[in-house]
Amino acid sequence: MVKRRKTLEAGGVSKVLQSLLQPLGAVLISLVLGAIIIAVSGEDVLNAYGIMLHGGFGNGNYLAATISRATPIIMGGLAVCVAWKAGYEAMGGEGQMILGALASALVALYVPGNGTVRIILAIAAAMLVGALYSAISGWLYQRFGVNFIISTLMMNYIANNVASYLTTYVVKDPEALDLNSVQTAKLPESVRLGKLAGGLPIHWGFVLAVLAVAAVFIVINYTAFGYKARMGGINERFARYGGINSKKMLFSIMLLSGALAGMGGAFEVLGSKYRYIDQMIFTAGFAWSGMVAALLANFNPFGTMFAAIMLAGLSNGGSAMQRSTEVPVEAVSVIEGIIMLLMSVKLLSVLRVRFKKRKAGDGNSPQNGGTCVEEMV
Amino acid sequence: MNVSLEYLLSVLNSTVRYMTPILLVTLCAGICSKVNVFNIALEGTLLAAAFFGFLAQYYFRNIFLSVLIAMLVGMLITLLMAFFVVKLKGHPMIVGMAINTIATGLTTLLLSVIFHTKGLISEPGMEGLTKVVLPGVQNSPVLESIFSSLTVVDYLAFLMAFAVFVFLYKTKTGFRLRAIGINEEAAGSLGIHVQKYQIIACTISGSMIGLAGCLLSLGSVTLFVQKISAARGYIALAADSLCMSHPLGAIASSALFGFTTALSYVLQKTPVRQQLLNCIPWIATIVAVAVYNVDALRKKNKPKKKTPKK
Amino acid sequence: MVFEMKNIVKNYGSLCANDHVSIHLNKGEILAIIGENGAGKSTITKILYGLEKPDEGEIFVDGKQVRFRSPTDAMAVGIGMVQQHFMLFESMSIAENIVFKNEITKGPFLDRKKTIKTVTALSKQYGLEIDPEAKIEDCSVGIRQRVEILKILYQNANIIIFDEPSAVLTPLEVEALLETMKQLAKMGKSIVLITHKLHEVISAADRIYVMRRGHVVAERIKSETNSDELAYLMVGKQMELRQIKPQPAGRQLLQVRSLSLMSGGRDVLRDVNLQVSAGEIVGIAGVSGNGQVELIQCLTGLLKPGSGTVLLQGTDVTHSSVCQRRAAGMAYVPEDRYLWGSAPSGTLSENTLMGKESKEPFCKNGFLKKKTVEEYCQTLISKYDVRALSPRQRMSEMSGGNAQKLIVAREMQMDAPLMISCEPTRGVDIGAMLFIHDQMLRMRSEGSGILLVSSELSEIMTLSDRIYVMFEGRICGEFQRGSIDERALGVLMLGGKKADG
């Protein structure tokens, strides 16, 4: 009995360490490999990394810019957390964010009403659009068995193209001086998410994002709905056995995930750029960074937030590095990519079990009924 | 719009030139699919192959060597992907997107560091892939229009499609690869080293992406630009789904995408539709997969018929 | 002797699957190994086929000692196994499946014509007719099994093991299979047949080993025994029957009428009728794989029946969801605690909450009261003697017996009048088993009705007030407590007929 207790306690501590070990390891290894790349570029590695660190987090302004950039990344990460925790490996954050961004810009620009109302409506519109777009992937999966990977990847491109089309031809900024700029009109002051006091470029979007992080954390861990989602994510059969309606769950999660991603787009438009610019979400890769953040944090909302800030800092730092050295900012994407690659393997034990259980047929195949661990002797 | 025969022929020619790189990448995607490896890293691999092919030609001025190097790059990156997915059991989507991100960043970075530009690099005097003039084509202006500016590798693409077909469906090794894709567990239990076959098959198929890369940067024009792959890697995924990973079907589906690309350039006169046109392959893929699944489910639920001989 | 296995010992953790088992096979003989679930017959044959390695013991094939690292080694010395789970390539042809791994080639290319010729000749040689170009996905299960046999014969196997081959066949197909086995034996092949079904054994086997709890308890020549004796040897006399006070049955809780289901081309459930009333334990006796799983899944809502009705406390729930049935008063202990009954990586609290997550006092306005959930879990842990340190432990860290106790606890505390319990003491130690039985009896005396499905005959006999026997998807008998003994029940379970009509 005593021996058991010991291992259990050790188990508790080592579990926390384990969950930090892989992310830390991944980041470190990628920084080392990044250093090699920087050296190839002909720069002094320490100098370059120093500038990068400073550019991301060095002073108040930089930190604020990092936090500003982190805002949509956090939302993208939350979208992934929600979906993946429930067992749905959707990758549609980008398309949802794009459409959400555009929708928020259009609502903010053209819907009548006073400033605050329009802001709220804009965010709501972004959530709605993101949610519905996400629900389509859910429907394709549930009705036609179209795997999430295919549907969400394709739909990301469709969304980007449709948004591009709309921005280029339908809602183009009438006052643009540069005929080549593909963007909507600029949002008037009244409908912007203002900056927090202190003149720092952190806007209220970040505050809302933090609230969203807390809300998602509470929902996942402290509500009956979150419980059902999590159990479904661990063992889909157990959830069904317990009476959970898997169809209802699928759509609820898809809607929620899409709404979160859409919000991310809205925050970027309303708080940072004040307009929808063609390719702005696509190029910035917010949703993908969000994915990396969620992976690093093992789908924990708060961890995702911190990881998102780190990744945003990495990105901004990279821009600074590009300005001051010969190292192009792409070194950062390479580092991010390496992190992603190294984190892809962590999910092996979790996803493999889940995947096997989902793959091993639905409840309608009797053959799967009796594979108890200790039987079949 | 002046729709003359000449015009139509040039569209046909464009279709062929746009489809060949897609065909090659689709063939690679197809082989990987056939062994149950979901290769999402096509885009990044293509970009890298195009870049290193260009780079090699820039330094060595030996087209043959450059093509080989591009093929090698294609194989190495696909090997990396296969290793992470098959051996380490990494999530295919994440592995693929990670490699794409790394490749995109790395090629732009090297472009910047080596050539001091992030835009376009071209070397006017540099020799590209050898253009082939088929005997007898000169006699007919029609044929000449269709086959103009086609390089060795363009023709090679079609040959590869047939070669892959023969390999997969007529040889012993191809048979085993297909079996792995149908039922990995059964193949393993009957004594086949499934992982070995998977990794080797994927790696070798990566060489085709190398060829495709050459078409992009060393083809009709010798240049490299940041997004030269233009999402062809993803289009190839779509093409692969549409043709159900069949090598001959790949010709048809890549022709479709080649055609829509050519069309979108033709229709540039009415630019309203370009971005929407781009969506056709994506929507088509989703529809194709949905239809395929519904059909497969219907087949599964069909009551089993007894074979004639009892 | 074509093979001999001496003193084989195989342990799975603390479970001894084979305890000094010695068997042998003679040339041209059909050997049957029979026994209940858990007897160890599958294990010994897996060892023979190289799927498992013995902890102790020796194997001799044709007089030479062998050590198998994998089935490939076994196949190399001529041992082949037709497993329960077929290893076939659906979209490929029969011929392609047969020659896989030993393809007939012309250079690097497949020689299609020669392949078909060879396969056709092979099938004619052994009288196993097939169409070499037919695709597996279009073939019936009987044909597929034939393909598996041909695969083995193609590899020149001399020893063919059949693991529960009739589990998936129709009666007609079983006849054909037994004929095939006799034919193969006549042609010099040696056969090992693992089965539960006595009539197959009597029909085809020359010699029989009976296994129980990891031992070979008897060896018989067919002509010197009969199905009654075999049934008795298989099932034996186990536990002392408890003295249980009979009590009158109350109102009807569950009524099942004419339930039928077809799956994969077979009749899985045939016109099943049964009922459970308050205050009684109704047992369904039967060997695993005779439709019990499907029956229970139809009752609990995880599977849709082809036809028939299910009434729960008078309400028709045939097409209701799982959630609705639970609300109508049904609890369910599933047969596989890890596949269906729990979330292994979740905590004990999370596992005990399932089914009640939206109910007071655990949930208020959608929010979970974690403390209440934990306290509840702790109550269950204490009350049901679950050896766990805290509700925060993970389910996967618990032993099988304790995990099962917790799941039983959860379902019993649902306050549902009807409880369906499937293999409740499978893979569970004696202490836990007795405890669970006590709890079931307590529920019975408190007025609940329990439907108990178990392949453990002693369990059924101890607890049930009424017993249904299930064989091949059909209820083939209903008996009151005390009106039938284990031996006769065993015979019925194995497809035999009750002596006195």
Topology:
The complex is a heterotrimer of chains A (377), B (310) and C (501).
Chain A: H1 2-40, H2 45-57, H3 60-85, H4 93-110, H5 115-144, H6 148-170, H7 204-222, H8 224-234, H9 236-241, H10 246-273, H11 280-284, H12 286-296, H13 301-324, H14 330-344, H15 348-359
Chain B: H1 5-34, H2 42-60, H3 63-87, H4 92-115, E1 120-122, H5 141-146, H6 152-170, H7 172-182, H8 184-189, H9 194-218, E2 223-225, H10 232-242, H11 247-266, H12 274-301
Helix pairs in contact in B: 1-6, 1-9, 1-10, 1-11, 2-3, 2-4, 2-9, 2-10, 3-4, 3-9, 6-7, 6-9, 6-11, 10-11, 10-12, 11-12
Chain C: E1 3-12, E2 15-25, E3 30-35, H1 41-48, E4 56-61, E5 64-66, H2 71-76, E6 79-82, H3 94-99, E7 105-106, E8 109-110, H4 112-125, H5 141-154, E9 159-163, H6 171-186, E10 190-195, H7 198-204, E11 207-212, E12 215-221, H8 227-235, E13 252-263, E14 266-277, E15 281-285, H9 292-300, E16 307-312, E17 315-316, H10 322-327, E18 330-333, H11 348-353, E19 363-364, E20 367-368, H12 370-383, H13 400-412, E21 418-422, H14 430-445, E22 449-454, H15 457-463, E23 466-471, E24 474-480, H16 486-493
Parallel strand pairs in C: 3-10, 3-11, 6-9, 9-10, 15-22, 15-23, 18-21, 21-22
Antiparallel strand pairs in C: 1-2, 1-4, 4-5, 7-8, 11-12, 13-14, 13-16, 16-17, 19-20, 23-24
